[in-house]
Amino acid sequence: MSFLEVIKEFHPKDVAQAIEAKGPEDVEHALGAKRLSLDDFMALLSPCAEAYLEEMAQKAHAITVKRFGKTILLYAPLYISNECSNSCSYCGFNVTNKIPRKTLTLDEIEEEAKVLHNQGFRHVLLLTGEAPSRCGLDYIEAAIRRIRPLFSSIAVEIYPLDEAGYRRLINAGVDGLTVYQETYDKDLYLNLHPRGKKRDYVWRLLTPERGGRAGMRRIGIGALLGLSDFRVDGFYTGLHAMYLQKHFWRTQVTVSFPRIRPAEGGFRPLSPVTDKNLVQLICAMRLLIHDAGLVLSTRESAELRNNLLPLGITQMSAGSCTAPGGYSHKADTAGQFEIHDTRTPEDVFSYIRSRGYDPVWKDWDTAFLSK
Amino acid sequence: MANKTQEDYLVINGRRFRSRLMVGTGKFSSPQVMMEAIEASGAEIVTVALRRVELNNPEDDLLKYIDTEKYLLLPNTSGARDAQEAVRLARLTRAAGCEPWVKLEVTPDPYYLLPDPVETLKAAEILVKDGFTVLPYINADPVLAKRLQDIGTATVMPLGAPIGTNRGIRTKEQIEIIIEQATVPVVVDAGLGAPSHAAEAMEMGADAVLVNTALAVTPNPKLMAGAFKKAVEAGREAFLAGIPEKSLKAQASSPLTGFLRE
Ligand code: SF4
């Protein structure tokens, strides 16, 4: 059974209603449960649970320390192209935006990669827009092979591929795949993606499964927070993460919580997500899935990231730049969105240390993949 | 959203059962006593050791009594010492006209009858390809359960304790992991000696339990079978209702969400 069949059982309106209807006894039940049912998860996402945030946080913290210890894995995004033929309303790379476009040459990619390597990073996330004609699979594969000696783990956040495509990338040295559904609400999804291949909701929804079948070791999912009601999209994200964990049990599932940031095009969040909402979502996710990696990017402010550190987060990016070429040169191209936490990797590293956590540069080795 | 209390069927390979109690047919003092117990148990799935019956003989003592219209006859391969033997036995049942459902047991150890994980996996793979609905009996090993699911078995049946020991669920932690990760029904099999053991398995979220010795070796199998029936139903209902555990009060330790009010 694919996730498409699972999600069909849950209409967004019903989910919203069920979440809204949860009361204190539901929340208390969920807080006491060893393993959450979907009903419990809804209770923790409900407005009613806001009164229990501190309890949720304490429990999320305890579970995370038990399962992950006090470690935070550091990674960096590496944008290799901002070309895109899609027109996602919220994104700076939207084809209708008049921004300088660039696809890095292999030499330029290596130059960027060396900067990150010298900063200490061994986990890198390779990103592109969606322009297969200018940024095809051959090119992406070549990029991976080029930077492979510099990193112990390479994940990709690129346009969705078929299973064979992912197998090719794995052979080239990729071990992780990140793909956000943006929103699980199909009608809203179609509104926000008026043109281009990304309009195909189902193709995108089933991408993590194709990656899982191809043998990805890590798969990251998430909803873009600010598009739809975070409680409802949060529920779907949890449902999706559980599905992936169960069906691809050799794969580590991670969940990200990207909030919409200002970007070229001036999109405003449709359903703004407050700091408090974000805390609730992260804690609820941790209580639902004890073993998922929870990822926090530099979209959030330094101050908020510091405060979120003990609430269940296990991975953080640092010193990020969302424009291709931006690490080695002052970017003459545009970024995908504005980053918020502008501290250097070194600063983030020492802050994590100061909180009694161990910042980890490497917890994987490509030797696992070499043929 | 579906109301959890409505239409609570056990579904195995698309087939629906109202009862979540399966029973075995060994060790009863007579077929009549056995049948009374089965009826009182409300079970719809009855497992029969192939090595005990003559499938081709309708006058066989055991088969004569079990109404296959009413019960799904689930032949088991107990006695098989390796994959080859189990596969051969399973094929025999089909050749004799049974439905292609099999409880796969590969138990080379004649003392505790503990299942051989390697041979079980091998046999399951062959039988699934062969079109059988395979319900494998296994030790409570979560990774083995996953691998069996991957190759397409219809359930997994982890043991609570070695067969016939009546010791209850000694593998609780492992079974909890299996239940948490399962994509097929989990049937707790072996070791359940008292109705409270069955209730416990159901409260943990098992989809069904299988009982034999506990019914067969009491002085009053019929009464005991009824007790198991109720225990399984009670455990299931408690699971559906959601058993509250001790609620966690915020510890006095430094608050983690204080910054939100700053
Ligand atoms: S979100 Fe991705 S596909 Fe959509 S416009 Fe941006 S880069 Fe292109």
Helix content of chain B: 25-40%
| Strand content bin of chain B | 5-15%
| Tally of DSSP β-strands of chain A | 9
What is the element string of chain B, with H for helices and E for strands?
A: EEEHEHEHEHEHEHEHEHH
Discrete helix count of chain A: 15
Work out the largest interface and the residue count of each chain: A-B, 32 and 25 residues
Descriptive terms for the model:
heterodimer, A: about 375 residues, alpha/beta, TIM Barrel, 8-stranded parallel beta barrel, 15 helices, about 40% helix, globular, B: about 260 residues, 5-stranded parallel β-sheet, 3-stranded parallel β-sheet, disordered N terminus, binds iron/sulfur cluster, Aldolase_TIM (chain B), transferase (chain B), schiff base (chain B), ThiG (chain B), Thiazole_synthase_ThiG (chain B)
Structure, briefly:
Chain A is of the alpha/beta class and 371 residues long. Helices cover 41% and strands 11% of the residues of chain A. Chain A has one domain: Aldolase class I (TIM Barrel, Alpha-Beta Barrel), CATH 3.20.20.70.
